[in-house]
Structure formats: C-alpha cells, structure tokens
Fold this sequence. Notes:
This protein is α+β, with helices and mostly antiparallel strands and 263 residues long. Helix content is 25%, strand content 11%. Residues 1-11 and 84-106 have low confidence and may be disordered.
Amino acid sequence: MKSVGEHTAILPQGPGRRYKIGVPPDPPMNRRRFFRAGLRELLKPLAQMVDTVSDVANQVAKIESLDGPPESPAQPPPVEPPQPAPTIRPPDGQTSARGRSRYGSATPDPVNEKWLRPPGAIPELQLATTCDHTGECVRACPAQCIKIEPTTAGGLPHIDVDAMPCVVCDGLYCMHACPTGALVPTSLADIDMGTAVWHEEKCLRSHGDDCSICVDECPIGNVAIELVEGKVNVIEAGCIGCGVCQNRCPTEPKSITVTRSVA
C-alpha cells in the first residue's frame, strides 16, 4: 500500500491548476524581481567596460600631470594697425592738383613754353589746386582754342596760340562756364594772359615790306598795338596777350610773339 506522499492522483486546485498529491506546489514567482535580476546580469559586461574606460582616463590624467600644465593654444601674432601714408609735400614753388595721376604734373611749365592760360585764370599755384579738369571751359569756347592735355601746361587749361589764339569773344564764355573759380569773370580791360613782343629784325617791315597783319588783326585794336613811324608798337597797358598777332604773323620764326603772364 502506497503512502500518502506517493499518491499519484491529480486533483484540481483552482482554475487551471493541478498538482500531485503529496508534492508541495512551487512558490509563486515575483516577476519584478525576476526582470531586475535578468537586467543586472545583462549590464554586468557594460559596467565592466565603464570601469575600464574610467581607469584608462585616470591613467592618462596622471601621465599628463607629470609633463606639467597643458600648453595654452598658440596665439596669433599681434596685428599692427596700418600706418597712415606719409604726407608728401611738393618742393617750394610747386603744388599738386586734383587729378594729378591722370593729368600729369601740375607744376607750372617754364615761362618760355609756347602756351597761354585762358582769360580770367587765377595765379598758377591756386589754379593747380582749383581746376577740376572737367573741361567746361573747353566746351564753352566758340573758337575751340582752350585745351586740356596731360603732358602740356601741367595738365591744366591752356591755349596754343600758334594753333588757335583766343579771339576775345563777346561773351568771354569760358570764364563764366568755369564751375570752380579757376577762371574768374574779368572785364576786358583787366584780362592779362600775356604781352606781345615785336621782333623787329625778323619782321617783313624791316626788309621793305609794309605788312601790317598783326595790327590789323588785333581784336583789341589800337589800344593794344599800332604803327608808329613805320614800326610796330605794342602798348603794354592795353595788350591782353590774346595771341592773335602771333598766330596771324606770316614769318617763320614769328616776328611777334606773346610772353605769357606768370603770377
């Protein structure tokens, strides 16, 4: 006869549960504890890796401490502020002009060069810094005698009387067209571009010819030039230096030339 502990009959113990008579049932499983234990096992390798990385970092820090404090990053060399360009002053008696690089030197040319300033021009040193080279005087001149050229007359307005003289037009338009005051409106009697000089030895009249072109063509008239006892007489107080006499003179070299005024 079997003991109670060896009884094999299966009896119901609640819905869906059966166990052998004489065998005690397994205690119920705590699921939360179960998952914690499983997670702990899974994380053990990761924890070991973290410990290893921490140990390596500590060792590197110890080695670096033996070499002294870490070097600071290299600083760029200091940048010196740009120095202002030196002021270049022209020699005594010279000056610079706006637009110098475009029009060349503004230094007045020697007196013996064959060109005149337009009527009403201010003195050379002031002219060089006042004229803006816009060419308003050039465009206003009905005779088209005023020129602005980079390599002539300091790059400033001038008249080549051999090519075309100032005809002393009724409006004296160039002076009124100037926008900067380089040419100042001036009365006819006060215009001073230069003074004509008669060269008797070259003149046809000294060789028996009765040429009087210079006297006849002068736009100012006998206030500036006349014939006296068969000779050409220039009246300095009346001559304005327009250059018509020089331009019309038939001899070569010219028997009458204009010496320009230099202020």
